[in-house]
Amino acid sequence: MQLGHKNSSFYKNGFSYLPNFKFQKELKLIRKVLKKNFSKKIKYYNEISIEKLRKISNSSLKEIYRKVNIDKLKSQITEYVAHELSSKNNFYASSYITLLITRPKKSNNLFTEKEYHDFHRETFYAGKKKLNYVKYQMNCWIPVFNISENQNLMYVPFSHKIPDKKIKLKNCKSKIVKKGSISHKLGYLHTQKKIL
Description:
7 helices, 36% helix
């Protein structure tokens, strides 16, 4: 299955921008939940432990599931992706949604392994049984609030054209994310396959 025409942005760059005007209602509800649950000053969140921050994130995610029509949001995104890629294939939207809260770099203990995902591919974690469909998987990143150059999603340009077998990996067990923990449920990895 080829995703997108060879002249499309997605085919060339490995990503595509989706306008969020179609799901503004859902985004407003998500923002409302997060503003309520993260109502203190930034300094407070920079100083609390990662475990406490993740507990707030986890309760926020549960509240989002209760208050936001996630199925409608997924349907709108899936419909736009199919249109953008000029695809007549059926797309299946995962029920797995993560909420990754990152803190501004204001102290030395931030932006370590605790705070963010390192570069990775979903195929690294698929296993043989799931690989047949995971290799066609696409992730959709929705920044809930405004972003800047210093708080953006990082990627390696044109890396989508590098075959998995040409990427050298090393298994690294997380020192803070345990299997089944709140961090793990939020989408953080307990064992990373680090790109060398």
